[in-house]
Write the structure tokens for this entry.
Amino acid sequence: MIIACELVEALAAQQAVAVPAAPALGAARRSYRPAPEPRTTTPKGLTTVWTRVRRVMWSWFPWAALAVYFVSQNDWWWAAGVGAAVAHAENAA
């Protein structure tokens, strides 16, 4: 009987070895590269001056103001061309 108890205890000790658990569903997997250092990387939210100039250039209101200027100067062909560009920019956006 003592031998059977020792055998049961030995088997229990062998089964108590830690088995890695399966990852939970939806758990994030570790990346192979380290995370970027936040103090040295530039934030994504800041836009440069060139980006702001480009956005204004492609927006509709400077072109609409230019069309109004050409109408005031009685330069109808330029006003019509710029107005068509404004209408195209409005429909494309």
